[in-house]
Design a protein that fits this description.
By secondary structure, the chain is α+β, with helices and mostly antiparallel strands. It has three helices and nine strands; from the N terminus they run E-H-E-E-E-E-H-E-E-H-E-E. Strand 4 and strand 5 form a beta hairpin. It starts with a strand and ends with a strand.
């Protein structure tokens, strides 16, 4: 089974579930396994934080990502992960030293009910959406 979800839908979900203002977030798929995320900060000085996220592998409903960004952005991420460690949902593991993220879909509250019955075979990024290829277990 194939499911397509637009980035606009994902940002809407993020905003309504977490309260994060997503108006300043821009998401774009640039390759089938690579996503660019830009976050515009407007304060005294306007700047954009850019990060490239690459899907490395899918193993037993675990998504293995690598992220690439500037050194300044890397330091911001490291500081945020350290200070918000207790708020990172169970099922998401962030290794700021090696720029790795592992998402365990069976451990996340928002996805475990779905992935108890479905296996994620593939995930691809399109310019305006992501596509999931799933099979029943």
């Amino acid at each position: 089974m194939q499911i397509e979800i637009s980035y606009a839908e994902l940002l809407w979900l993020l905003q309504h579930k977490s309260g994060v203002n997503t108006d300043a977030i821009d998401v774009c798929g640039v390759e089938s396994n690579t996503l660019h995320v830009n976050y515009k900060i407007s304060s005294l000085i306007s700047t954009t934080i850019a990060i490239k996220i690459q899907l490395c592998s899918i193993e037993n409903n675990n998504l293995h990502f690598f992220y690439n960004c500037s050194m300044a952005t890397s330091l911001v991420i490291k500081g945020l992960v350290t200070s918000l460690q207790n708020k990172i949902p169970q099922g998401i593991s962030v290794d700021t030293t090696n720029h790795r993220i592992i998402v365990d879909l069976l451990a996340l509250d928002v996805s475990k009910g779905v992935f108890q019955n479905l296996h994620l075979c593939n995930l691809t990024f399109q310019s305006n959406s992501l596509q999931l290829e799933l099979k029943f277990v």
